[in-house]
Each structure stands twice: as C-alpha cells, then as structure tokens.
Design brief:
Belongs to the ferric reductase (FRE) family. GO terms for molecular function: ferric-chelate reductase (NADH) activity; metal ion binding. It catalyses: 2 a Fe(II)-siderophore + NAD(+) + H(+) = 2 a Fe(III)-siderophore + NADH. The chain has 740 residues and is of the alpha/beta class. 50% of the residues lie in helices and 12% in strands.
Length: 740
C-alpha cells in the first residue's frame, strides 16, 4: 500500500477517480422527483380529506359523491374504497416504481453535507414519559393526530347539537339520542385511526421501505395507534351501552343481528377481541407474560372479520387499504417461514451468549443493521423471537450470524441443546450415523432500506450488554469497506459499552479487526470505552485464559438457506406481488358484484362485509400465490449450482478454532485504543462534552442499542448538547433497540 492511499477519498472504488465519478442520469433524477411529488400530493390530499370530513361542508360534498355513484357497478362500496383506501394503494404502487428506479446503489452516491444541520427524525424532543424517546418529527405526528381527534370530536358534537335542535324532544330523549349519536361519531373516528393501525406492522411493507423506517421503529407507532384506536372504539361501545341501559333495552340491542343496517352482536364480539388484545399488550402484562400477549394478539383475525360483519362492506372499505397491505405482508411472511433453514454452526460463548450462523442464499440482501425473526423447531413450533444480525453482508455471501443472550426459558433450552451436541464424542457415533443438527425457520431480514451508519463521518455507538451485537456488524461492515475500497464515510468512531460483568468483555475484545483490515488504524480513528458496572475491580484471573467456548458444527447442505420470499428482498418481485394481488382484489370484488350481488339482490350488510373480506383474502391467496410460486421458481433457478465456497473458508476457520481459548482484553491487538473502567456507569455528559471539544462543528451519528433507560440517558444528552451548541457537533440520535 503506498503512502498516499490513506488520503484518497473512501467514496472512490478501485480504479476510479474524482473525474470519472459517475453521476446520476438526469432522466432518473427527474423520474424520482416526479414520483416523490406525486406521492406527496396524493398523501396530502387524502389526509386533508380525512381531516376536513367532520365539517359540514366537506360532509355534504362527500354525500353528493356517494349519491352520484350509487348506481355504478361497484356502488357505494367502490366509491368509498376509491376515496379512502385507493390513495394508500396508489402510493404503494408509486413507491415500488421509486425503489426500483433508485436501485441499491443510491447510498454510494451520497455525500456528507458541508455544514452540520438538524434533522427532525434524529432530534430527540421528549426523552422521558409514556411515549419513550420522541423525535421532533414524531412529536409533529402526535400533535397532528391529537389535533385531528380534538377537531373531529368538537365538529361532530356541534353537528349532533344542530341535529337535535331540529326535533321537538324531551330532555331524556335528547340525552339518549345524544349518547347514540356520539357513539356513532366515535366509531367513525375510530375507523380512520384503524386505516393507519395496520400500516406500521407490515414488516416488509413497501411504504416503510420508501420512508426508510424499519419495522422495529414502526412497531412503536402501531402501539401508539393501538392505544388511541382502542380508547376511541371503547368510547364508541360504552356510549351505546349506557344509552341502551338507560332505555332498558341493553340485552336486546347487544344480541341484535340486523340484515339491513349495523349488526350489533358482531360489533360486540369484535370489540371484546380488541379489548382482550389491548389489555394483554399493556406493559405490566406483556413483560410478565409475553406468550399471553403474543397468542391473544392473534385475535386480530376475529377483530377484523367481525368488524366487517358489524359495519358492512362499504363502511369497512374505509380502512381496507391498510388492512389489505398487512394481509399481503402476512401471507408473504407465512410462505417464507415454511422454509427450513439449517444452522451451520452454533457456539456457546463463556459469557452466556449463543452465536448461531445461518445459511442464506447469495441473492438475499441485508445490511449491518438488519434483524430476523427466528424459530427453532427443536424448541417450539410456535415461538418466534427477533434478533439483530451480528454479521456484515461483506463477511460472507451465503451466511449471516446472530448473537443471542441467554435470558429466558427458550434461550436456556437452546443453550442446553448446543452444549449437549458439542459434548458428544465423535467416537461414540456409529460410522453411518448422521450428525445432530438444529433446524430453524426465519422471517426476514428486515431493517433500514439504507445503511445509515455509512452516511456519517463521525459515529458514537452506545451499547448495553448484548446490544453490542449490531455494532459488531457495523464494525465489520466498515472495515470490509475500507479494505475493499468501497463507499464508506465513517472516519471517527467511539464505542461506549456498558456491561454488568467482565465475563461479557470477550464479545467485543476477541473481535479480530486486523484479520479483516490490516492497518485499519491508519484510516479509521477507533476508540472504545467499556464500563463494567457491577465489579469494582478487574477479576484476579485477568490476563489469563478463559475456558474455551463450546461449539457445534452442522452439515451444510444445498438449498438449506433461508427463502428470499421477503418484502425487503427483490424489489421487482415484491412489487409485482403487491400490484397483481391488488388488481386481483379489485377484479374479484367487481366480478362478485356483477355476477352475484347485483343479480341476486344481496342486501344484507353483514353478509356483504363477509364477502368483501373473503375477496380480500382470496385475491392474496390466488393472485398473490401465483406470483409467489413464480418467484419461488425464479429463486430455485438462480440458486441452482450455487455453492458455498465463500463461506467454506469461514466455517473451516471456525472449526479450527473450536478449541481456541478466549483471552482477556489486555492481549487484544487494539487494546491501546480502548479503556475499561470498573464500578461505574458511563457519564454521557462528560463523554459528549469531550467529543464536542475534540470533533468540532460536525454531524455526529449516535446509535443506541440497549434498554429504555440507556436510550433515555443518551437522548437527553444529545438534546442538551444540541440546544446549547456553539461551534460544536450536532448529535443525531438513532435507536436500534427492538422493544415489543
């Protein structure tokens, strides 16, 4: 390596120069700009319509539209669907085109801004409270939803009072009618909240990929919307119950199942299922008994179906767009999870952590901040657990790895199986007896559409315990990119790691950086600050050798990798899947109206609602299933003949090191850039203040992976430093913690 190589821009690949650096074609940039503007116009128009609908003037215009389309082929249902659900699906279609045009290399052309600037998504505003850490952009969203609820309730209340003034009623009759009208209005507001509720939990959703919000972040939006929706639906049902009870007809009304009009009994069943999901999702219940939360949440099927029976097809179509996108994602996840994935190797580390290396096809892409949902068949056929990926895509084409902290029954059983297999003596096995193996199913990988850790020249990575796992992937990714001369902005990295016991230190300190990128310290300024919080001094055996890890290596067979049938995978195939299924849904509803509902005069609201849901599911199974079948055939064709030569070397190295002993941090090659402090926690005010003085007026990406208390502490210091900033860095807060 020549003496000038360290000074060449890392954004340039081998053989390239500043002069021949490729620029994005004008046509592609123009197409992306047009698509982006179009999507924003559609979304703003759709949101404005929903916001203004409670007003008298907008409601009159809406009623005129409904009346004008009453005699059309799809009738009122088609009109309402086009107004409230179609915009979301159209945006999804345009998102697919946008992602295809953008391609996978957009990140490589991004450059860091000349001057540091605040970003709404990474500026923490609220750091304590029921919402956790809330960014400026999230606060704007919360305020807009709150404003809509207040405005809608106020506008509907005024309309209810005006309506009551037109009739000569007694005070008691007015009270009954006011309660029922208020219940009706809350039901309408709840439906619009429901239109958003399912969007954040479509893990591979093209909409989440468009705005680059990964599922683990979007989950909290689902939680917020879930609380809001259930509060509104509970008020909806409670107001009716009070009105009926005051009139002495509660039982009769609850059990009523009308053919024309709203059927009450399905609504009661739907609300009961929703309340059960809501109560078991509250933090005290969820943290004490996660399985109860998980299994009761499968009642969403009952909730949705009986909601459709309750309100009929045309009212249900208000929220159908978001639900349909969720059904698309759920079916794709189901198809991917049917594949059995062999675990290449499993290791029990001395610190009570398990490492699994999973086989994957070469064309399944992910990034260093991805995560997967894992099911191990030998442990349970029902339990799925999320884990951050601890390997970089550049570590190997045909595998990925995860680190699992042994904390509960499931992880204890997994560790026990690995220890039992590793202790088997090869001589005990019969010559023709196959080796034991672990089989798993995987959903994912999911995560950010772009590797945002590569967009900062300066990074602070804050981890608590096993939270170091994704940062190992980040380090590996950056080192590989430096070694391979691939696009990579980070130049200064500070790792702050807090652990309870010193036996966890090998997770980071045995990570051999120089084997990935020799002399990386010439190009990367890396500093590591480790805090052992529950030990006041180094253990007596420091500097000595730990006992070796227990490892099991399993046979690698062809086509044992995870399936590429994932929404975050091939954009073209996932786009075809969404488009064909949506078109199939519209065709199914149209044919049902033309061939069955209109000729036979079907008028029952609940029955038409059931048929509408049936069309939704059937279109995904039939039209979407056809695309998935072709996608699967394409996967088999492209993977034929693929061998795992790239990973063979890695697995051989792992096997050779099976008996390798873990050494203490002081023997590590980069110990000169690291410090270990015992008996204290990180002082983020001191750490961030020191960084401010040393790094100057720059953008600093702060990524946190750890418990909520750690996230709050870091976010609070980011906010504090940003507010009093004067020629100091802007700290951009990013959380990589998964909290269901």
């Amino acid at each position: 390596m020549d003496e000038h190589s360290a000074h060449r821009p890392l954004l340039l690949s081998k053989g390239s120069s500043l002069g021949d650096f490729k620029k994005r074609p004008l046509l592609v940039s123009s197409a992306k700009w047009i698509l982006k503007v179009t999507m924003w116009v559609i979304f703003i128009a759709w949101a404005t319509l929903i916001f203004l609908l409670p007003s008298e003037s907008m409601n009159k215009s809406y009623q005129k539209l409904i009346q004008a389309t009453h005699g059309t082929v799809l009738g009122i249902t088609g009109s309402i669907f086009m107004v409230f659900s179609a915009p979301i699906l159209i945006i999804a279609f345009l998102s697919i085109a946008y992602l295809i045009i953008s391609g996978e290399e957009e990140l490589q052309e991004k450059k860091s801004p000349k001057f540091p600037r605040f970003r709404l998504w990474t500026f923490p505003v609220i750091v304590d409270g029921p919402f956790g850490v809330v960014s400026a952009a999230e606060l704007i969203g919360i305020l807009l939803f709150s404003l809509y609820i207040i405005w809608a309730v106020s506008a509907y209340t005024v309309r209810n009072l005006n309506l009551l003034s037109e009739f000569q009623l007694t005070f008691k009759e007015e009270s009954y009618l006011m309660l029922e009208l208020s219940g009706l209005r809350f039901g309408s507001i709840g439906l619009f909240c429901l239109a958003f509720l399912f969007l954040p939990i479509a893990r591979g959703s093209v909409l989440l990929r468009l705005i680059d919000i990964p599922f683990e972040h979007a989950t909290k939006y689902h939680v917020w919307l879930g609380h809001l929706t259930m509060v509104i639906f509970t008020l909806h049902g409670l107001l009716y119950v009070v009105a009926w009870a005051m009139q002495g007809r509660l039982l009769r009304e609850i059990l009523e199942w009308k053919n024309i009009g709203v059927a009450n009994l399905p609504g009661v069943i739907s609300l009961a299922a929703g309340l059960l999901m809501w109560v078991t999702s509250l933090p005290p219940v969820r943290k004490q008994n996660f399985e109860l939360f998980f299994y009761t949440h499968q009642l969403y099927v009952v909730f949705v179906i009986f909601l459709a029976l309750h309100v009929g097809d045309f009212i249900f179509s208000i929220a159908a767009g978001g639900i349909f996108l969720f059904v698309l994602d759920r079916f794709l996840r189901f198809c991917q999870s049917r594949r059995t994935v062999n675990i290449i190797s499993a290791s029990c580390l001395p610190c009570g952590t398990v490492e699994l290396v999973l086989s994957k096809p070469g064309n399944l892409r992910y990034n260093a901040l991805s995560f997967i949902f894992l099911q191990v068949r030998e442990l349970s056929w029902l339990q799925w657990h999320p884990f951050s990926v601890s390997s970089s895509p550049l570590d190997g084409k045909y595998h990925l790895s995860v680190l699992i902290k042994v904390l509960g029954k499931w992880t204890e059983k997994l560790r026990g199986i690995i220890l039992n297999v590793s202790e088997e003596e090869p001589q005990v096995r019969q010559p023709l007896q196959p080796r034991s193996k672990l089989t798993a199913s995987v959903e994912g990988p999911y995560g950010h559409e772009s590797s945002y850790h590569l967009t900062y020249e300066n990074l602070i990575l804050v981890a608590g315990g096993i939270g170091i796992s994704p940062f190992l992937a980040i380090l590996s990714d950056i080192l590989h990119r430096i070694e391979d001369r691939k696009p990579c902005l980070p130049q200064n990295i500070l790792i702050v790691w807090a652990v309870k016991r010193s036996n966890e230190l090998p997770l980071l300190y045995t990570f051999d950086m120089e084997s990935i990128c020799p002399f990386f310290s010439d190009k990367l300024n890396l500093e590591i600050q480790t805090y052992v919080t529950r030990e006041s001094e180094p253990p007596l055996e420091e500097g000595k050798v730990h006992k070796s890890m227990n490892s099991s290596f399993f046979p690698v067979s062809n086509r044992c990798g995870m399936s590429i049938l994932v929404g975050t995978g091939n954009t073209i195939w996932s786009g075809i899947y969404v488009m064909v299924s949506t078109i199939g849904f519209i065709i199914s509803v149209g044919l049902l109206d033309i061939c069955y509902i209109n000729p036979f005069g079907v008028s029952s609201w609940w029955y038409k609602g059931l048929l509408f849901v049936a069309c939704m599911v059937a279109s995904v199974l039939i039209f979407g299933g056809l695309v998935i079948g072709l996608w699967h055939l394409w996967e088999r064709k492209t993977s034929t003949g693929e061998a795992c030569e790239d990973d063979g070397q890695k697995i051989n190295i792992m096997q050779n090191n099976e008996a390798k002993e873990y050494k203490e941090p002081c023997q590590n090659t980069f110990s000169s850039t690291s410090t270990i402090q015992y008996g204290r926690r990180p002082d983020f005010k001191e750490i961030f203040g020191s960084i401010s003085e040393r790094w100057g007026d720059v953008d600093v990406g702060v990524i946190v992976c750890g418990p909520p208390t750690l996230q709050s502490s870091v976010a609070k210091e980011c906010r504090s430093q940003n507010l009093k900033r004067c020629n100091h860095p802007i700290f951009h807060f990013n959380s990589h913690s998964f909290d269901l």
